Amino acid sequence: MTPATATALYDVPGPRTRQRHRIYGVLSTVVILALLGWIVYLLFATDQFTYTKWMPFEYKGIQELLLRGLGNTLKAFAIAAVLSLALGGALATGRLSDHRWVRWPATVVVEFFRAMPVLVMIFFVFVALKVQPLPALVAGLTLYNGSVLAEVFRSGVNSVERGQREAAFALGMRKSQVMSYVLLPQAVRAMLPAIISQLVVALKDTSLGFLITYEEFLHAGKLIASNLDYDLPFIPVVMVISPIYIGMCMLLSWFAGWVSRREQRSPKTEAAHVAAAEPGTLLPGGEPPTAPRP
Questions:
Q1: pTM for the whole thing?
Q2: Which residue among 47, 139, 188, 204 is the one 20 to 30 A from 255 at the CA level?
């Protein structure tokens, strides 16, 4: 990096500024360590690390309860994720349609379910329609996340340069071909972070299932934390469940990064190598045209 490019976006800090930044870094580290130490002190002061509170996790029945709840969480998330992507794609197609009678109803559906709280939709399906907990949870997550993903898909397609679309139409391609072969391959890479972010939201929102008695991961943790025989181990349950939720979200983000890197290495997205021009016949079946001699 040359000095010109290094200072194009910001001013290079001088000696005093660098020293001030180091002081800020040291002070921030001290504050963070002090905060962590204070939290650990409170945990010990309130007897959160006693054997009685952590004893439930030794029993096979408790472990099976947690594993069953984790499996139910992943089951609800998998179904909701697939249905949300499908619904988002369908609604985005409707919003991108050239026909008003298709575009306007799709717009109304997207805006309505984006504005509705997901918990209200889950309760409505569960109570008013008298649906079982799993379908009610999946329905609420699908309607909300599908409408949000529809906007993500629409924005991603519209983010592609207009010249790409016009060039494809100039070549005689139909709209479906332009969307499939030109716009979507370029838009996916721009949409992928937002798609994964919304799927992470769907994964975390599966915890709302415990409000309608769906036996997911948080519901299992609630049963353990409310057990008087183990002195209400609320904090130990949180310390066990939270890293698992965080780990699942990080795994989903890692998978998105892996897909993105694989997409960039795909032959369909790599630049084609064009051979250098060589002297030769410019017109088929003849020599290059020359000016008439005087």
A1: 0.75
A2: 139
